[in-house]
Write a structure and sequence with these properties.
Butyryl-CoA Dehydrogenase, subunit A, domain 2; 3 domains; Butyryl-Coa Dehydrogenase, subunit A, domain 1; 4-stranded mixed sheet; alpha+beta; 11 helices; Butyryl-CoA Dehydrogenase, subunit A, domain 3; 3-stranded antiparallel sheet
Amino acid sequence: MNFAFSEEQEELRRITRNWLEAKSPEATVRELMETEEGYDAKIWAQMGSEMGLQGLIIPEEYGGQGYTYVELIVVLEEMGKRLLCAPYFSTVALATNALLQTGTDEAKQAHLPGIAAGETIATLALTESNGRWDAEGVTLEGGDTLSGEKMFVLDGHTANLILVVAKTAGGFGIYAVDGDASGLTRTPLATMDQTRKQAKLTFENTPATLVSADNLSWDAIAQILDLAAVALAAEQVGGAQECLDTSVQYAKDRVQFGRPIGSFQAIKHKCADMLLEVESARSAAYYAGWCAAELNDELPAVASLAKAYCSEAYFHTAAENIQIHGGIGFTWEHPAHLYFKRAKSSELLFGDPAYHRELLAQRIGI
């Protein structure tokens, strides 16, 4: 069994990294995070038409590239390094996965080509005001019209296509709602991490179309969340790596008492601990990505393991990055706080580490 990336996958990484360095520098991130939309429509279109990134895991029959989840892991790791401000995660890791795993063929034909072309922004609305990520947290009733609320919906204020998880008579269903549908009110939320937008969605007799099989089990919904957790773990690894890289570079460049601060034992130990965490997190995310590509029996356990570990690794490296930079690391002008806030928001998304450790214990029968 070979867990090394192929030449083609490494080339995808190189191309994506170069593109993101040009399109998502710090100045652009700061500019976009201050806007209500949170992304650049021209860059989003280029991602689809020039790079084909939105269609990466969409089969060719629906207009996509037909790659596996391993390639998505490669791309998301690079996006995490650059704090890309775009509705990519919501569209690909959430909505696309929901359609691929539970959608009817008619629904896939209707929605996936637009996503692959970069014409459709999509998201998945699951969490409600209770903030829960489990079956008991879903109280919205499904039907031809929807009435109720969904909270913390990633890019819910700009999505053209909203996939809503709701209860049915015998389980759950996923319903498609147009972003301009009648009775839909979309309210942007004030969040700590401005680089990832969230919204509250209010439905009042809003027209909806069932796009999944009727009466899905919670296991089907949980698999969508597991795939999203694996995708997020890869993104967290990219952010943690950037925190490590900038810390090490600053430790080499910053001179105190006539010597680089990296020569002091305290700083050396911090960098060494960060390196260990980043490499361990990378291993967990990569293995989870392979399990996701195979949709094998290990995925539920490995997804929770990766989400818990990568969340803590990212948050710790982001905090240490600030500490190593000293006073300048606490300032608004320095990018360290952007990674710290992204690390914290990602830690809580889909459940915090404690939640996923408990979920892991349940899934392996402890």
